Amino acid sequence: xxxKKKALxxxxxxxxxxxxxxxxxxxxxxxxAFPLIDVDEIEANPYQPRDTFEEEALNGLAExxxxxxxxxxxxxxxxxxxxxxLISGERRLRASKLAGLNQIPAFxxxxxxxxxxxxxxxxxxxxxxxxxxxxxxxxxxLMEECNFTQEEMSEKVGKKRTTIANYLRLLRLxxxxxxxxxxxxxxxxxxxxxxxxxxxxxxxxELYQKILSADLSVRQVEEIVRTINNPPNKKAKKTIALxxxxxxxxxxLTQKTGLKISLKAxxxxxxxxxxxxNEDELHKIEKLFQ
Length: 290
Known about the structure:
The protein is of the alpha/beta class. It has three domains: 2-112, Conserved hypothetical protein from pyrococcus furiosus pfu- 392566-001, ParB domain (Alpha-Beta Complex), CATH 3.90.1530.30; 173-229, no CATH class; 234-288, no CATH class. The protein has helices at 2-22, 55-68, 90-98, 113-127, 132-146, 150-157, 161-169, 175-182, 188-195, 201-214, 218-229, 234-257, 279-288, and strands at 31-33, 36-38, 42-43, 74-78, 84-88, 103-109, 260-266, 269-275. The strands form two sheets. Strands 1, 2, 3, 4, 5 and 6 form a six-stranded mixed beta sheet that branches. Strand 4 and strand 5 form a beta hairpin. Helix 4 runs antiparallel to helix 5.
């Protein structure tokens, strides 16, 4: 009996230490007990950022739990109706149900709604294999519900502020592109390149479809985006071509007339000026038009 208590004590201490490390400088809440709880008495966490779980991985965890039991307890809080609400460990809870367990070990924490939200989201950011869009939505919810700044989130989850900012920028992409990121059709590198297309959702969607159909690399997409954002200046090219033609024409006229020639191009045409220094040169110009 003493051995069992001692083992539980070590497990409790280890989990509490791990929770502090996992949540950074997260909310500190007292642990009331370490009981076995009926799985049917545990409600899902409404703040769970993940809405999909990989079936194969879940079945693998269930198989492990079926033979070894649930080694790491879930974390819950007690509700007024006597039931429990999951704070963290939804994947373990689902796998335990698949394994046929009626009861699982759980830590019961005293926590208000904000504390539950913070613990659940931070725990998921750090420990679950969330996709980029799930992480982005989690950061957004932490900012909205907990009034965190990007700097505060950086401290909580141990990620650079620039990393957090990059995830949040994904939420500015069209919905179909967000779905592509969620479904791992394109990478974060592709997404960042698409975000570089300035104020043109139609172009973003068009390039997204091209990425899928042509299996474009991130580097190829970056090159296309550069072309989109900095298209060739047709007017400048035309002006350069005209200037070259005018120089040639001016040189030919000068050689044939022996006069000073000025050529000026405008949007609507241009002007040709023949300069003369004396009456003889004026008569020379006159003869040119006779």
